[in-house]
Each structure stands twice: as C-alpha cells, then as structure tokens.
Amino acid sequence: MAMKKTINKIDKQEIEKRVRDWKQRISDLYSEIKLWLNGSEYSIKYGPKLTMYEELMAQFKVHSTEIDTADIYKNNRIILTIKPKGLWVIGANGRVDVLSTKGNYMLVDFAEQFETPQWKLFNGDKKNGVEFTNQTFLQLLSK
Amino acid sequence: MNIFDELGKIYNEIDNTYASIEVKHRSFGHHKKEAEYFRKRQLNDQAYFLFMFTRIEDRVRNLSDNLIDNKVTALSDWKIKRTWEIINKQKSNDSLHFMNRVALLTQKGHDDYNLIQRYHDQRNNIGHGGAFTIAISIPTVIADMKRLYRDLL
C-alpha cells in the first residue's frame, strides 16, 4: 500500500497542475461510474459543488476552486453520495468519501502523482481496501 | 485486539452513523443539516487521530527514556557519555523536544522519521485549535500507527 517517493519541485505551477489533475481524476471517476451504471437500475447525477482550498493552495497563493460531488440514485432517491475529501493525503494521492445510508466508505488513490489512478475502496470498517471496479461498486450498491 | 484496532472500531461506528444521517439529509435537500453532520465527521476524525497519536507519543517517550537511561548507566568512556548526559539532563527537565526523541529512535530524514513528523505537524495544528491541513485517511493512519508502534526500537 505504501507509495513510492515522488519528489517534484513545489511551486505555484506545480500546485495548480496537481489541482487540475485531481479535478480531472474526479471527473473521470464519475464518467467511469456512469458507464458502469448504464442499463442498471441506478443512475449518477452531479450534486452541489464543494469548495476546494487546501493548505498548499493557500501557501502558494493558488485560488480556491470548486469540485464536483455526485449522487447515485435508485427509484429517484439518493442512495449514495460521492464527495472528494482531499488531494493531499499522507501516503496517498487523494481521498474521496463514499457515503450511504448504510454507512461510510472511502476511495483512496494509491497511484503516483500524474499516473493512472489506482483507486482502492475501503469498506464499512475501513480495513482491507479492495480494487475499485465495476463489480466492487455494484456489490456496494446492492448492500 | 490492540489499542489501534479498538479505537478504529469505535471511530468507524461513529463515522458510519454520522455518514448515514448526512446522506439522509442530502437526499431530502436539507443542506444545512448535511453540512452539520459533515462537520461532526470532521471533528470525529480529529478526535480519534489525536487519541491514536498520543499512543505513539507515549511509545516514543518510553523507548527514548529507556535508551537514554541505558546509555547513561552503561557507558563509561566520558567522550561518548558526555553527549548522553546532556540529553539526560534535557529529559529530566522535560526540555527534550518530541522530534528529538524520535531522532534517537529513527534516522532523521528517513521514511519513519518523516512520517512521524508529518503526523506530529497535524497533531500540533489540531492541538492548537486548527484543523487538519491535509485530509486524513483513517485506514492509512491506523496501518501507519500500528507499524510504527511495533517497529520503533
């Protein structure tokens, strides 16, 4: 689970680049989920945006930005909410909260910076992360 | 079950309960209530992170105290012993900084030292009334704390 060390020069441009990359990864995540849900009883819709303004953004005078949340619907009712929690996480490359009426899950990206995301889904007791796939997501929805 | 698993279990029970209420409020469009439970989950993260970090602090204090005591007792060559006597004095008057204690147990600048330093910075922010400056992933915290607690010598 431990990430390799990636040491990039940190300046305003680097922080902006990482924020753009984070927003893109979140957008890609929603797109992928949308594909998975095609033809199923579930659908995904964007929810209210969250403000993103993390410590390094403030430190390097990078403007705050907005990031999308999303909801999963079944029979026109929200059964799951997806909220990006933070890009800068110790030991990972971002965390997304996945909340349901039956509990809280978490997606953590263990990929190196600017590489293809390696999302892992942590279950209700937040242990034993599993690869986030079509199957694991549909299993989560059917609980 | 060790202390970190035990704390993790209680943390999850609370977090899951709040998360469930947060989603219910969102689905009814009660965004003020949704934000209230979002905030409660944040405070829960902070409280349990602090609780877990105090276990590591105790571990570092105990191990570094033992190391200093052993060195002062066992060493007879003054040229080596003098350094430990100065450290021992700092230990006795409680002026030995936590990260200097960590440096006695792990190599400064290496992975474990840097990891404890990052968590220590977060602990100080919260302890002084601030919030996490980064998102905390509790599964990662528990795994790190368990490993550090076991591996620190």
Q: Tell me what portion of residues of chain B adopts beta-strand conformation.
A: under 5%
Percent helix among the residues of chain A? 25-40%
Major sheet details of chain A = 7 strands, antiparallel
Averaging pLDDT over every residue of chain A, what do you get? 88
Percent in strands of chain A: 25-35%
Q: How many beta-strand runs of chain B?
A: 0
Mean pLDDT of chain B: 91
Radius of gyration of chain A: 16 Å
Please name the CATH architecture of chain A.
2-Layer Sandwich
Which residues of chain A sit in consecutive blocks of at least 5 with pLDDT less than 50?
none
Biggest chain-to-chain interface with counts: A-B, 37 and 31 residues
Number of helices, counting only DSSP H or I runs of 4 residues or more of chain A: 3
Number of strands of chain A: 9
Number of helices of chain B: 6
* Element order of chain B: H for helix, E for strand: HHHHHH
From N to C, what is the helix and strand string of chain A?
Answer: HEEHEEEEEEEH
Describe what this molecule looks like in 3D.
The complex is a heterodimer of chains A (143) and B (153). Chain A is α+β, with helices and mostly antiparallel strands and 143 residues long. Chain A has a single domain (12-142), classed as Metal Transport, Frataxin, Chain A (2-Layer Sandwich). In chain A, 28% of the residues lie in helices and 31% in strands. Chain A is built from 3 helices and 9 strands. Chain A has helices spanning 12-37, 55-59, 134-142, and strands at residues 42-46, 50-52, 65-67, 70-74, 77-86, 95-100, 103-109, 119-122, 130-131. In chain A, the strands form 2 sheets. Chain A has a 7-stranded antiparallel β-sheet, covered by helices on one side. In chain A, strands 2-3 form a two-stranded antiparallel sheet. The radius of gyration of chain A is 16 Å and the shape is globular. Chain A starts with 11 loop residues before the first helix and ends with a helix. Chain B is mostly helical and 153 residues long. Chain B has one domain (3-151). Chain B has helices at residues 3-27, 31-74, 78-92, 98-105, 111-127, 138-151. The A-B interface holds A 1, 47-48, 54-55, 71, 77-81, 83, 85-92, 94-95, 97, 99-104, 106, 108, 122, 124-127, 129 and B 8-9, 12, 15-16, 18-20, 22-24, 26-27, 31, 38, 41, 115, 118-119, 133-144.
